[in-house]
């Protein structure tokens, strides 16, 4: 009888224990971001690239004098169709307005008048650290966009973070086969996509500066 009364008087789990159990169960459940990615039609875990989530970028002075950043004329080359010029101008304005003042090559603004298109496209690729491919229906129909994409892949086929595919209004089946080994940014919310592009460029430039510094030490 004594042990039965002690069992009845056993205290209930504390609020702390309950909150810990709740947090454990929440952490083991699938994230809402993965569910939204699957519902968008671009599900992760396939042989195709998938949307990347923006992540915080650690602080590193990429603007210091002598930085490897200044070895090229531009930080970013935007490869796009002329029909997407308005969106691209917004992206360029966003990147150039960042504290790092990213240097962007915009063909209709920065190409030298009278120069050959092929020359300008090749020079833009060679003189830029990163290449943003704004893949839209217009991009897929523009032979010059495809030419510049192939030039970028030939310039640095295995360089992580240099070629940045950005998909907008493009079905999965139409995604260029040449880029299917690369993760892409799927543009749903423009502000989020712009931030992802900025973070990707920043991450590459920081890694470039770290590698350059370690080689000189």
TrEMBL record:
<dbReference type="InterPro" id="IPR000157">
    <property type="entry name" value="TIR_dom"/>
</dbReference>
<protein>
    <submittedName>
        <fullName>TIRAP protein</fullName>
    </submittedName>
</protein>
<dbReference type="GO" id="GO:0035663">
    <property type="term" value="F:Toll-like receptor 2 binding"/>
</dbReference>
<dbReference type="GO" id="GO:0005886">
    <property type="term" value="C:plasma membrane"/>
</dbReference>
<dbReference type="GO" id="GO:0034142">
    <property type="term" value="P:toll-like receptor 4 signaling pathway"/>
</dbReference>
<dbReference type="GO" id="GO:0035662">
    <property type="term" value="F:Toll-like receptor 4 binding"/>
</dbReference>
<dbReference type="GO" id="GO:2000343">
    <property type="term" value="P:positive regulation of chemokine (C-X-C motif) ligand 2 production"/>
</dbReference>
<dbReference type="Pfam" id="PF13676">
    <property type="entry name" value="TIR_2"/>
</dbReference>
<dbReference type="InterPro" id="IPR035897">
    <property type="entry name" value="Toll_tir_struct_dom_sf"/>
</dbReference>
<feature type="region of interest" description="Disordered">
    <location>
        <begin position="14"/>
        <end position="52"/>
    </location>
</feature>
<feature type="domain" description="TIR">
    <location>
        <begin position="72"/>
        <end position="208"/>
    </location>
</feature>
<dbReference type="GO" id="GO:0043123">
    <property type="term" value="P:positive regulation of canonical NF-kappaB signal transduction"/>
</dbReference>
<feature type="compositionally biased region" description="Low complexity">
    <location>
        <begin position="17"/>
        <end position="47"/>
    </location>
</feature>
<dbReference type="GO" id="GO:0032760">
    <property type="term" value="P:positive regulation of tumor necrosis factor production"/>
</dbReference>
<dbReference type="InterPro" id="IPR017279">
    <property type="entry name" value="Tol-interleuk_rcpt_adapt_Tirap"/>
</dbReference>
<dbReference type="GO" id="GO:0005737">
    <property type="term" value="C:cytoplasm"/>
</dbReference>
């Amino acid at each position: 009888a004594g042990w039965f009364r002690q069992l009845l008087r056993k205290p209930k789990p504390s609020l702390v224990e309950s909150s810990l159990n709740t947090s454990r169960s929440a952490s083991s459940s699938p994230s809402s971001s993965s569910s939204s990615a699957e519902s968008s039609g671009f599900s992760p875990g396939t042989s195709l690239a998938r949307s990347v989530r923006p992540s915080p970028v650690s602080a590193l002075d990429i603007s210091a004098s002598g930085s490897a950043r200044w070895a090229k004329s531009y930080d970013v080359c935007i490869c796009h169709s002329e029909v997407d010029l308005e969106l691209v101008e917004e992206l360029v304005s966003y990147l150039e307005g960042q504290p790092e003042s990213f240097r962007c090559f915009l063909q209709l603004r920065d190409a030298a008048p009278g120069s050959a298109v092929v020359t300008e496209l090749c020079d833009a690729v060679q003189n830029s650290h990163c290449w943003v491919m704004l893949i839209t229906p217009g991009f897929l129909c523009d032979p010059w966009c495809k030419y510049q994409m192939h030039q970028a892949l030939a310039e640095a086929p295995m360089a992580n973070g240099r070629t940045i595919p950005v998909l907008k209004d493009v079905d999965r089946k139409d995604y260029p086969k040449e880029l299917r080994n690369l993760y892409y940014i799927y543009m749903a919310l423009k502000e989020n996509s712009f931030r992802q592009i900025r973070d990707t460029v920043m991450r590459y430039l920081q890694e470039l500066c770290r590698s350059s510094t370690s080689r000189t030490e």
